[in-house]
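Loading example: each entry is read as two labelled lines plus one structure line.
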Amino acid sequence: GAVVSQHPSRVICKSGTSVKIECRSLDFQATTMFWYRQFPKQSLMLMATSNEGSKATYEQGVEKDKFLINHASLTLSTLTVTSAHPEDSSFYICSATRAGTAAQADTQYFGPGTRLTVL
Amino acid sequence: AQTVTQSQPEMSVQEAETVTLSCTYDTSESNYYLFWYKQPPSRQMILVIRQEAYKQQNATENRFSVNFQKAAKSFSLKISDSQLGDTAMYFCAPHAQGGSEKLVFGKGTKLTVNP
């Protein structure tokens, strides 16, 4: 159990366009979802935390208007990169926590990631 | 605030041997968890092992075990009988108790298992 999917796995877009990435918890209800970005050979950097039906909490330095997060249901969160530019090219990863025991609630399960390339 | 230090950027080990990855952290939280995640070349983050900070007993998961020294804020990962599939980036991460709390990742250790 605790499978998280992401779609698409890879996307290439032109500069100035918007791209939407979906994150789904397939076999559990996600109490909280997280969005990370990862540059090559670097660690994961948390971008934002979202709870279903609430506004996302963004980390310092992350532009809210550029990276729109919607968490419409307990199994789906979306990240929209608006007016994408080449510097937004990165690997974006989502994770989710599930309701249950304290240990389960505090464990993040990760999606496979989305590689975004902006030309 | 939490900080994590993984002092070994890269390590290598021969297949079937044992290797230990180090991690030290700093946290002001009294209740927290510690995690090791691996990220193989596929880039899928995979949970390796989890330790509750209030437990004195070190967590084990098959070939993976930890040496948790709470006072020293040290959380090392031991991999026994290393396999080629263990080749990956390994990230240590403390996590304050609470499902909305964030993971704070170290910079990672790149482990290569050689045949």
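DSSP finds one helix and eleven strands in chain A.
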